[in-house]
């Protein structure tokens, strides 16, 4: 990997700028993470942050909604706004010489949004449509519900909100959410591309340097579920299974070892779950696992979609495969996992959008940046013995199991 030039600066008002200079590209990308995510939604008005994320680009500063959209289009900005658990995030990429003008517009969006009441209903309807689309996608629905039950509330709750809550959300709630969350303290701006750090720092200071910090706010309390098995009845010929168990969080010394363990289980068509559950036994039409986390907590989330007649066997075999990983790992499985990681690193190295998002995310989780060389070294140092040591220290056990289908399934007492 080539040497990365990463620089950071924390402004007096608490805003953090993180940059990566990439002189061999012509573009520049940014990720702006403002701490106004769904975990700060009122308990009975889940979806407030999601509506705000849509409404906030419908006019700002000197621009009305159409003028704002046209101005960004004229600059060639490929952009997205959205809500996550902790943040409302703005991302964009454009030619490097258009970055300054683009960020000037985003300063208006973040600091001077119109939040027009006459477009509130349209924004709320868009959020409702997104939530309804989840109901029509069984796999996504199962993973949303599994995350809800395997992570503490409010972090496990769907960031788009709750459909039943949307009718009770008003424009006043949106304004209150904006006022509470949109401050420079804990806001992170990640910028990557053909940039000069000193010029970017001066630009950001001019745009955000006089942005007033907050008076402080209380972080939401965490509520952990006590139940481990969940069933949602649905009259269908299919059954959707979700399985979760503990893992280490991002930033933990064993994080990349945990990542490799999950990659061996579910990293392509040669991975364990695909070959053992789908190919050899034909039990399901899809099966997967992923490593998911929040600050300080990690989980492995698994999904399988199958026929209702084969659902119990699918659950039993999947649980067995998750636990069988500790019995041994073939070196060829690890080498395939490493090859996928190296390919991903190479593609990430060439993408300004990927780098901007990565350095901003790293700062949120770690308060420092993990370089691509460091990740590469972590991957290179992986061995089957090291992965087995991790699996034995953090075994697949104490499962949270979710079933969506016509009947509940049985989880062995010694596994649940």
TrEMBL record:
It holds the Pfam family Peptidase_M16_C. Residues 18-142 form the Peptidase M16 N-terminal domain. Residues 169-339 form the Peptidase M16 C-terminal domain. It comes from the Bacteria. InterPro entries: Metalloenz_LuxS/M16, MPP/UQCRC_Complex, Pept_M16_N, Peptidase_M16_C. Signal peptide: none annotated. GO terms for molecular function: metal ion binding. This is Peptidase M16 inactive domain protein.
């Amino acid at each position: 990997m080539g040497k990365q030039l990463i620089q950071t600066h924390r402004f007096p008002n608490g805003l953090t700028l993180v940059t990566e200079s990439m002189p061999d590209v012509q573009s520049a990308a940014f990720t702006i993470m403002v701490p106004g995510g769904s975990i700060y939604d009122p308990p009975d008005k889940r979806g407030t942050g999601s509506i705000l994320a849509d409404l906030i680009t419908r006019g700002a500063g000197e621009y009305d909604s159409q003028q704002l959209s046209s101005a960004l289009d004229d600059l060639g900005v490929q952009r997205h706004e959205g809500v996550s658990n902790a943040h409302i995030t703005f991302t964009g990429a454009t030619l490097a010489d258009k970055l300054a003008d683009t960020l000037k517009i985003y300063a208006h969006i973040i600091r001077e949004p119109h939040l027009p009441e006459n477009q509130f209903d349209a924004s709320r309807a868009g959020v409702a449509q997104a939530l309804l689309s989840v109901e029509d996608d069984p796999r996504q629905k199962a993973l949303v519900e599994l995350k809800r039950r395997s992570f503490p509330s409010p972090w496990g709750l769907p960031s788009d909100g709750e459909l039943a809550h949307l009718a009770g959300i008003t424009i006043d709630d949106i304004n209150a959410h904006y006022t509470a969350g949109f401050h420079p303290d804990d806001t992170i701006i990640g910028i990557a591309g053909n940039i000069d750090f000193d010029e970017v720092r001066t630009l950001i200071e001019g745009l955000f340097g006089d942005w007033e910090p907050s008076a402080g706010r209380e972080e939401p309390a965490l509520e952990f579920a006590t139940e481990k098995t969940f069933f949602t009845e649905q009259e269908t010929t299919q059954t959707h299974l979700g399985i979760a168990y503990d893992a280490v969080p991002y930033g933990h010394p064993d994080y990349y070892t945990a990542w490799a363990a999950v990659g061996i289980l579910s990293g392509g068509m040669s991975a364990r779950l695909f070959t053992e559950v789908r190919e050899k036994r034909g039990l399901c039409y899809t099966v997967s696992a992923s490593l998911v986390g929040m600050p300080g907590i990690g989980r492995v989330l698994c999904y399988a979609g199958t026929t209702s007649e084969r659902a119990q066997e699918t659950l039993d075999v999947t649980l067995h495969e998750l636990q069988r990983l500790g019995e041994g790992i073939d070196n060829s499985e690890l080498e395939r996992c490493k090859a996928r990681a190296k390919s991903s690193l190479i593609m990430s190295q060439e993408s300004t959008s990927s780098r901007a998002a990565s350095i901003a995310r790293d700062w949120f989780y770690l308060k420092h940046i993990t370089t691509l060389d460091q990740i590469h070294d972590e991957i290179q140092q992986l061995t089957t013995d090291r992965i087995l040591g991790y699996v034995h220290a953090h075994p697949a056990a104490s499962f949270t199991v979710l079933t969506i289908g016509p009947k509940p399934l049985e989880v062995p007492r010694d596994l649940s």
